[in-house]
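Example with several molecule types.
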Amino acid sequence: MSESTTSASTSSASSTATSGATAADGDSGGPAAARAASHGERILLDGVTKRYPGQHKAAVDDVTLEIPAGEIVMLVGPSGCGKTTTMKMINRLIEPTGGRILIGDEDVTHKNADDLRRRIGYVIQGAGLFPHYTVGDNIGLVPNLLKWDKSRTRKRVEELLDMVGLDPGQFRDRYPRQLSGGQQQRVGVARALAADPPVLLMDEPFGAVDPITRQRLQDELLRLQEELRKTIVFVTHDFDEAVKLGDRIAILQEGSEVVQYDTPEQILAAPANDFVEGFVGSGAALKQLTLTRVRDVDLHEAAVAKVGGDARSAITKARELGRKWVIVLDEEERPQRWVPVDELEKSGTLGSVTRNLDLEVVNTASTLQDALDQMLTSSHGVVVVTGRRNRYEGVIRVETIMAAMQSMQSAAHRAETVTPTGARS
Amino acid sequence: MTAASKGYPMGFWSFVQDRAPVLASDAWQHFSLVVQSLAISTVLGLALAVLVYRSPAGSAAANAFSAIGLTIPSYALLGLMVGIISLGVVPSVIGLVFYGTLPILRNAIVGLSGVDKTLVESARGMGMSPTAVLLKLEIPLAWPIVMTGIRVSGQMLMGVAAIAAFVLGPGLGGFIFSGISRFGGANATNSIVAGTVGILILAVILDLLLTVVSRLTTSRGIRV
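Resulting structure tokens for the full complex:
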């Protein structure tokens, strides 16, 4: 692929910037961009090939791919397509039989493999922690290989545990088997970041944890990436994960052939061919919802009443909006439950409202997908949105979600006509 | 002393008391012979395992060697050694090291090849050299299984060392052999029982020691 295609699709990414990760792309030129330059390094795969002796077909056949500095690039494809092989050639766990690999401007194809790997963070499924090392020793592995002095390693371990949300005092001296799967995976990420490598390789890191933990780990990775701006190559077979995390997605076919390499928005809106379409699945329109956060759309007003407050103004407001329900908040503006207008008229007071624990609520940081899920279980056609400290912010309607989907699709189509779809090799 | 010198059979306790200094020194030599041979066996077994564990053919050959080696009667092997070398300590140590190495070799191969391959790959992926992977990851993880092999060897060598007396080696075997050669004579049974019980006690002590060593040398993270 060419330089011009890269910059073109980058700008299309920031113009439709919606997800947490791409949103940070928007302020290019700011201090974040300056930091980004020092953090991630570009990776260039140039005609990389892996041919195993005695096999007719190459496992990876002449792949050319540029991974821009500071971005998360997702390698997605069916099993056996060579995505893991492609990734392992970057840290030369698998030696390429042809082509070259550049990190930054340096050709690393023939560099000492151990030195190279100490500059590349590596996270695998199930974390791959050493069971006989404590959490602290696991994180300190690469710093020790690099012969950092003890106090520097110790400080770094504390910093990293903090960064991945584990209390150093509590976790540093534990052994991996004393941690849950999600905690182990966090330590795995911390270990990969230990020597502050510019590049991170992640091989289906969240494949072995339960869905809720996976979602949390994904959110945390995005949060970390906003700060760190590493260049991350992430292998997954889960297209939803690719859409959620990727600044760019490379969809691979057998022999690691790059079928489409583009932003998630583009791939969802304009799949390059039937293979991609099949991979994207029928829910492509729905998948775009994971690209948008609740805070990115306009919320609606609902009729609001406070516990112990005056019911009449709420009733008037509800009539004005044409609604039959009122949302009741407590003194700290936290939503409690929906109350029908009829009931308010009868009692005329809001003295005793108990909190409905099953009230459908989403946070401003939730995705539209989460909001839609909640909506489907709610009987109101709207979902209450809360902001900081669970304070009431507004409601989100199904119309809002539909509109967001339509605008995303048309924006993507517009971009499509301006920029020819990215690299295909 | 008087009863023994007159050739009368005496009680077991008076026999032991009578020969306490000799018994103690033989017991010490027996123990020392076994421990030293075991140490050499451990180094040898581990080294051989490291050489072969990555190759399936090598591992199979080593396992076959270990299985066949253990079927050679120790009596025959030590007898053979007298012809080749001589009598005394050297053939005893060689014989013991031979038998002691086999279970350790076998367990070390099992332990090393049982280390999770994804762990090895993640270690390599972080930039650990093959030697570092072996010393910091594979051997520590295989260690509990290697230690089990060492304990099995230790128990076996306690018995084999008794036969070292046959080639005039050191240890408690002397009591058993002299008892057998004077069978029916005065104190023959006492002599055999004293040697045997002595070896049993030493075996228990050695096993306890090895259990403690195993615990101290195994990381808390992989202790069962």
